[in-house]
Design a protein that fits this description.
Radius of gyration: 24 Å
CATH architecture of the largest domain: 7 Propeller
CATH superfamily of the largest domain: YVTN repeat-like/Quinoprotein amine dehydrogenase
CATH topology of the largest domain: Methylamine Dehydrogenase, Chain H
Helix content: under 10%
Largest sheet: 5 strands, mixed
Strand content: 35-45%
Structural class: mainly beta
Number of strands: 34
Strand order of the largest sheet: 2-1-5-3-4
């Protein structure tokens, strides 16, 4: 690597700040050389902390602590001078404010749960994992008992494409847990599982799609599904007005499914509350963008193989915004912390979108490290800066949005393409693959420091 000529190296004044009170130091400006990088700053911060806390430094375990540094809301990955020269809003005359924090510990392999076929989808709530498989089955696992298998449900007549727990916060301590599954068989089905008796009950089917239902998301008592038929449909959990009457004709795509014992089931069917059209190719992902309440109507975002993201206003049942790329989208996730979207595409790139931007590009940053299609993506539910991605390159990656040049960590272990990821738990990251395994990675060593 080229080094800077001594005459071109500048001196900077810098103030160091942290949100972690364990490492707080005086806000005194310090002179640092422009060639200083993260490694050198790490040594400096440790020295300053040791001087500040004196006899208490042994309690801080500084020997095993490494720090990361943020300038201008970006992680420092080069020398200070290189960083400043690449930032349009900074100059060598600026006094820098550098935020530091303890580095995120690498996730550790925790468990690997074997299925009989490809693991296509996964969701987690508290200590319960639900996974969908290409052998038409859905599985429930107990995280608290080291991943013990609770039940296998022959839920559909074709491969499972999406699963989602239906979370009722007012009844969160109950043993009854509802969830929804979708499939190549053109159905979404709502179920209830009792964790005490370990019995599952079929509730009703959502009928209306004419091709594979590939994605699902839940907001209070509304379910959103996206399909290869290019349609977004909204279903009501609570409103019986939308039940399909026995006298109404059903299409060939709406044949009755069967009970778990193979006998015919007298299906309770629901029809959609809203059907939204606009995409020209398959919808591959859908996500509610805010919580539904008595005073607000939630928007929903969809991504598609037609290279577009559409944001829908559910109140008026219209497409309110369209975001365009040059490649097909395969996955989408929304963060309630920063109100941004992230997407995975066929061009191997991950994009961070800010739909609120009124000028310039809506793509805030592009993250490139995967070597194949980015098939799955999910925000952390406890950290506004972190997300994970899965790819056909067999790798799961953990990212910090402030570092576009490289991921924080590669989570390896899968032997075939990654089809799904989930970071709903504050303790575990979960991924499913065409190698028939559900991998669980632990991030228990990390403590979230909130501002």
């Amino acid at each position: 690597m080229d080094t800077m000529d001594d005459k071109s190296v500048h001196q900077f004044m810098a103030t160091f700040i942290t949100k972690d009170s364990r490492f707080a130091i005086p806000s005194t400006p310090y002179a640092i050389n422009g060639s200083t990088d993260g490694l050198a700053l790490n040594s400096l911060i440790k020295t300053l902390i040791a001087e500040t806390f004196d006899d208490q430094q042994s309690d801080l375990n500084l020997e095993d602590t490494e720090f990361d540094f943020i300038i201008n809301n970006k992680l420092l990955r080069v020398s200070v001078q290189e960083f400043v020269e690449n930032e349009e809003t900074l100059s060598v005359e600026n006094e820098l404010q550098i935020e530091f924090f303890a580095k995120w510990c690498p996730p550790k392999p925790h468990n690997s749960l074997l299925h009989d076929d490809w693991v296509s989808c996964v969701d987690c709530h508290h200590n319960w994992i639900i996974s969908g498989c290409y052998d038409n089955s859905v599985h429930i696992w107990d995280l608290n008992s080291d991943g013990s298998h609770k039940i296998a449900i022959p839920a559909h007549l074709a491969p499972i494409k999406a699963v989602k727990w239906i979370v009722n916060e007012s009844n969160d301590s109950s043993n009854d847990h509802m969830f929804v599954t979708t499939s190549h068989d053109e159905l979404a089905i709502v179920w209830k599982w009792n964790s005490q008796s370990n019995q599952v009950e079929y509730l009703f089917s959502c009928r209306g799609h004419s091709r594979s239902v590939d994605c699902v998301d839940v907001n209070n008592d509304l379910i959103a599904t996206g399909s290869y038929d290019q349609m977004l449909k909204i279903w009501s959990l609570a409103d019986p007005k939308h039940e399909l009457k026995d006298s109404e004709p059903s299409t060939s795509a709406q044949k009755k499914s069967k009970k778990n014992d193979g006998s015919e089931r007298g299906d309770k069917n629901r029809i959609p509350v809203i059907t939204l059209s606009g995409h020209k190719e398959a919808i591959t992902g859908c996500v509610w963008m805010n919580k539904l309440s008595e005073t607000s109507i939630a928007n929903i975002s969809t991504c598609s193989m037609d290279n577009t993201i559409r944001i829908w206003d559910i109140e008026v049942a219209e497409n309110k915004q369209t975001l365009t790329s040059n490649k097909a989208f395969l996955a989408i996730s929304y963060s309630s912390f920063n109100t941004c979207l992230i997407t995975g595409s066929c061009d191997r790139h991950i994009r961070l979108w800010d739909p609120r931007t009124s000028s310039g590009s809506l793509v805030s940053r592009v993250y490139t490290s995967h070597q194949a299609w980015v098939s799955a993506i999910d925000w952390s539910k406890t950290n506004e800066y972190h997300f994970i991605s899965g790819s056909y390159d067999n790798i799961v990656k953990q990212w910090d949005i402030r570092s576009a040049n490289a991921p924080l960590f590669d989570l390896i272990g899968h032997e075939d393409k990654v089809l799904c990821v989930n970071w709903s738990s504050d303790k575990y990251m979960i991924s499913g693959s065409a190698d028939n395994h559900l991998k669980i990675f632990s991030n228990l060593d990390n403590k979230i420091i909130k501002s």
